[in-house]
Amino acid sequence: MAAAAAASSAAAGAADGVDTNLYSRQIGVYGMETMGKLIAMKVLIVGLKGVGIETAKNLTLAGPQSVTLYDPTVTEAADLGCNYYLEASHVGKVRRDEASAARVKELNSYVRVSALEPENGKDLSTADLAKFDLVVFCDEGPAGFVRPRSELEAFNEFCRTQATPIGFIVASVRGVSGMAFLDFGDAHVVFDSNGEQNRVATISNISNGPVTKVMTEDTKRHGFEDGDFVVFRDVEGMDKLNDGEPRKICNVTAHGFDIEEDSSSYGEFVVCSATVEQTKVPHPVAFASYADRRLNPVPADDPMGCLITADYSKFGRPMQLHVAYAAVDDFAASNGGRLPKPHDEADAAAVVEAAKALCAAAHASGADTQLPKPEDVEADVVAMVAKRAVYELQSLAAFFGGVVAQEVVKFTGKYSPLRQFFYLDAFETIAEEGHELAAKDVSEFAVTGTRYDHVVGLFGSRYAEHLQSRKVFLVGSGALGCEFLKNFAMMGLGCGADGRVTVTDMDNIEVSNLNRQFLFRPEDVGKAKSVCAAAAAKAMNPDLKVEALEVPVGPDTESTFDDAFWSGLDLVTNALDNVKARLYVDGICVFYRKPLIESGTLGTKANTQVVAPFITESYGDSQDPEEDSIPMCTLKNFPHAIEHCIEWARDMFQGAFTDSVQEAAAFRDAPEEWVKKTLEEPNAFTRRQKLEGVVNAIDLAGRADWRTCVEEARKLFHTHYYTNICQLLHNFPKDYVNKETGVPFWSGHKRAPQPLEFSIDEPEHLGFVAHTAALIADNFGIAVPSNWSDIEALRELTASMPQPAFVPKAVVIKSGEDDDAVEGGDDDDKVAVEAADKLRSIAASKAAELAALKLAAADFEKDDDTNHHIDFIAAASNLRASNYRIPTVPRHRVKIIAGKIIPAIATTTCAVTGLVGIEILKTFRVPKIEAFRNTFLNLAINMYAMSEPMPPKKTVSKEYDPVTMGPLRAQPEGFTPWDRIEIDGSEAMTVAELRDNIAASQKVDIDILSVTVNGETKMMYAPLFAPSHRARETRPVVDVCREMGMDLPEKRRYVMMDVACSDSDGDVAVPRIMFKF
Asked: Are 441 and 462 in contact (CB under 8 A)?
C-alpha cells in the first residue's frame, strides 16, 4: 500500500517530465530549468571504490537520464569498507560495477542505471566515452594499482575536442587526502553563477549625468556587488531605464551604485515605487586540459591566484598535494601501474625524489610553471600521501563524492564549476607519535583481508578496534542521519562487541524524503525513519550494533534518555533540523561533558561545528540572529516582495479553510457558549470577522453543492483582488501625498495596487476559483467532480455569476506600522450583534440540521500534491502579486516559502557528513583545539572555509560588571560553562545545610539559590527578596524542589542550581552547582 501511495503521489506531482513531489526539495535548490536539463543528461562513472560509489549514489538521487557504471574488477574484501553496495557474497565472484548497479538503480526509478560493457570487449575506449554527456574517473582497478595518467590525459583530450565537448572529471582519495579535477571544454557557459535569488532594492533617487548614479533606500543594504547586472522597473520620469535591458553596475556602496550610461537627456527622476533587480547574465568559462594543468594547476584568470585553499592555516598545502599526487602518478607509471607500498620507506623516498624531479624538470625547461622549486617540496607531505595511497579514508570519499556529483550538475550551466583542481587533506586524523592510539610499529598496519583494511592500513589495528568499541548517539535519521549511519557502518564505528550506535527519530518516511534520504525506498513510505535507516545500515555492515528508537529527545523523555544512557556515551552526533532540539542536546552534552558534532545544510550550503568538552565553545554559546518577521501592515496592504504575497495567501488559507471552519464546528457543538464567548472578544473588528465567518460557513455547509462552492470561490476572488483593493485606493488615492512630509504616499516600498476584475479568459483567475472551490468542498464533505479543473466547465459555471460594483465604506486602514489607528468599520459592533442574533436563531430553529452538519477544517500539508493546498496558495499569492505589479513565481517556489521548507540536496548532505566524519576521528585522540575544524561550505561557488573552533567562553573578574553594576570576582578565575561545583549531599540535606556547605567551600555569602522548573528559572532560596523562604531552611532540598514542581525521576540523583553570591568586596560569580543526593 505504501509503495502504491508513493507511486500515486509521484504521478500526481509530475510536471514537464519531472516528479515535483519526489524532487520538491531539490527543485527548491536548482529550479525547474536546471532539472529539465539534468533529466536529459547521460553520465558515465568509472571506478567504484569510495568516491565512485558516493558520486553514483548522489547523482542517481539527483535524477539524470542515465548513470552508467564501469569497474570490471572483481570485488575484494577491502571494498566492503568503502563501497556499501558490495556484500561479502560478492567477494571474489562479482564485478564491482555489476554488483553496484543492481543496488544503485533502486535509488531512483526514473534513472537508467547499468554496468558498461566496453565496445571493444576488453577495456574502456573513446568509443565508449562518445555515448555520454559527461564522464567521471574515480579510483578503480585492483587494490594498489591505478589507471595510468597518460590514459586519463588521452581520454580528456578526446572529450574536450568533440563538437559538443564531453564533460570530464577526475576524482581520487589517496589515504587521508583527496583531489578533484574538472574540464568542461574551452567555452562552457554559466547561466547562474551562484544560485542565489535575485536581490531587489527600492530606489530612492537617480541622478542624471554622463554617469548615472542610483541611490536605494537606506533602511537595508541592497546587497549588490561590483560587476552585477540589474534591471530597472517602474521608474517614473526616466522611462528609458524601464526597457528591461540588463545594465552592469560599478562603484557599489551600501546604498548606491553607478551605471556607465549617459542619462543627461532622460528627464528627472520622480519619487515613486521604482525598483532595481539583480539579474543573471550568461558568461563563458574556459578550461584547460588535464595535461596542460599538470605544471600550471592555477588558471591565469583565477581571482585568488592560487589553488582552492579550504584551510588557511595550511596555506600552500594544496600545491604541495598537487605535486605529491603527480609524483605518485609518475611512480606508478614507472612501476607497472603499482602505487607505493603502504608504509614502505623506500617507496615513499622514491616518490619524494619523483616530486623533486618533476619540479626540477619544470623549472629547467624554461616554460612557465607554478610548481614549487625542488628545494621547496615538503617531503613530509609527499611521504604522507605515498605511504597511505593504496587506502581510502571513507569520510574523505563521502566528501569528494558530494563535491563531484555537484560538479556534474554544474554541467547544466547552473553554478560555478571548479577551476580546475581541488585538494583537501585530513592529516590531523593520524594520531601523533607517542599518543596511546598511535601505531607503535609498522606491524600494526598489517591488513588481513577484511572490510576494515582501509581503517587498519590508515590508522593501525588498535585504533580500528578503538573505533569499533565506541558508543555513539545519533539524533535524527533524515537526510543527515542516513549519511551518518552509512559512514559509521563503513568506518566501523560502533561495530565491535562493546560498541553501539543508538539512533532516534519520531518521524515517518514521506515520498519527498526519497530524493535525499538514500536509505529509504518507496515501499518504506509511512514506516518509521529510525527503524528503516538502522536496518539499511546494518545490511551494509552486519557488524554494526545499532538500536533504533522512535522517541524525541527533550525534557519529556529524560526517563528514556537518563543519566546511565548519557553517561555511557563516547560521542553525540546531531542530525536535527530545528534549533530548539539542537540547543537541548547541546545543553545535555555540556552537562554530561560529552563531545558533540553539529552540522546542517541549506541547499548548496552547509556547516559543521565541533563541541569538545573543556576545549571549545558549545553550540548554544553562539547562535544566528532570528529572521526578520514581516510587518503586519506590509502583509495586509503594502506588499513589495513575493514573500509578502505568499505569507498573505498562507494566512488567507488558514482563515478561510481552517480557522473559520473550526469556529463553525465549535458553534455547532455548543452554540450558546460559543456566541457568548465570541461577543466578549475585546476587538470589534475581530468579533465581526469571527461571527460573520461562522454565519457564512454554516450557510454554506447547509446548502452547498459544487456550484455553490464555485460561487463562493468566485466571491472570494472578487473580495480580495477587486473590492479590498478598490477600498485601499479609496482611502489612499494614487495621487495621495503625505501631509507631514510632502512625499507621495505611494512611493518607496509602498506600491500602488491595481484592482483585478475577474475574467473567464484568464487561466490564472479560473485556476484560483477551481482550487478554492475544491477546498471549500473538502471543508463541507462535498464530492469534487472529475472535471473540476476543466477550463470550459469553469467558464460556463462562472460566466453568469455577478460582479458587484464597488461601493466605498467608512473603513479605517492603517497607513503604516507607526499608525496607531484602530482598523475596522463604523458598523463593526452593529454587524457583529446582528450576526450573533442570526446564529442564535439558527441554533434555536434548526437544531437538528445544525448538529448534522459536516465540517472538516483543512490541516495544511505541503507535500500532498492532490489536496489543492499549495495550488491554492500559489494561485492566491501570484494574483496578489499581480495586484501590486510584483513579479510572480512558479509553484515550486511558492511551496518552498509557504511550507517553510529547507531546500535540501543529497550532494551537500553527503559532503558535509564526510567532513563530520573527519572531526569524529579527531575526537577519539587526545583532542587539541588546533586540530579541530569548523567548516562552512557552499558547493555552488566552490567556497570551503575551515577554521579553528572558538574556545569556551570564560567568566573573568571585572572592575565593573554591567549586570551587577559593580565589581565582579570570578571564582575560579576563567571558569567556563563546562565547569561546575559538585556538592555531595543526601536526600535529608536541608536547604540551610546546602547553603552553608557552598558558603564554606567557596568562602562566599549565599544570596540566591535558583533551580530550573519546566524551562523556567525559579528562586528556591532568596530570603532577602522573599522572607517566606526562611521557612525552607530546615526542609530537605529535594522536598522543596518537588514542591516547586520539579520532576525528579527515580534514577536521577542530583539537582542543578544557579547561585548568586558575594563577599565583603562585592559580587562573586561561581560555576553552576550540582547537588548530589
From this structure: no
With cut-offs at 50, 70 and 90, classify the pLDDT of residue 500: very high
CB 798 within 8 A of CB 716: no
For 1033, residues 6+ apart whose C-beta sits below 8 A from its C-beta are: 990, 991, 992, 995, 1021
Enumerate domains of the chain plus CATH numbers: 31-190+287-424 (3.40.50.720), 200-279 (2.40.30.180), 469-627+903-947 (3.40.50.720), 640-703+715-760+807-885 (1.10.10.2660), 958-1076 (3.10.290.60)
What is the rounded CA–CA span in Å between residue 322 and residue 621?
A: 38
φ, ψ dihedrals at 415, nearest 5°: 80, 175
Give pLDDT, residue 15.
56
DSSP code for 303: S
Q: HSE on the CB side for 466, CA within 13 Å? A: 20
Cα dihedral 436→440→443→447 (10° resolution)? 30
pTM of the predicted structure, to 2 decimals = 0.91
Burial class (CB in 10 A: 0-12, 13-18, 19+), 176: buried
Query: Which amino acid type is present at position 521?
Result: R
| CA–CA dist 827, 723 (Å, integer) | 18
- 3-state percent breakdown (helix, strand, coil) of the chain, nearest 5: 40, 20, 40
The candidate with the shortest Cα–Cα distance to 67, out of 116, 118, 113, 132, is: 113
Q: Which residues neighbour 1016 within 8 Å (Cβ) at sequence distance 6 or greater? A: none
- Taking the CA atoms of 34, 39, 44 and 48 in sequence, report the sign of the dihedral they define: positive
Q: What is the pLDDT of residues 940-973, one digit of tens each?
A: 999 999 999 999 999 999 999 888 888 999 999 9
- Strand runs (DSSP E) across 784-914, as ranges? 811-812, 824-825
Q: Is 312 exposed, middle or buried (0-12, 13-18, 19+ CB in 10 A)?
A: exposed
Three-class secondary structure of residue 639 per DSSP: coil
Look up residue 662 and give its DSSP letter.
H
Count the residues in the chain.
1077
Is 633 annotated as catalytic? yes
Which of 633, 709, 910, 1041 is catalytic? The answer is 633
pLDDT in tens, 568-621: 999 999 999 888 899 999 999 999 999 999 999 999 999 999 999 999 999 998
Label residues 340-363 b or e (16+ Cβ within 10 Å = b): bbbbeeebbebbbbbbbebbeebe
Q: What mean pLDDT do residues 534-550 have?
A: 98
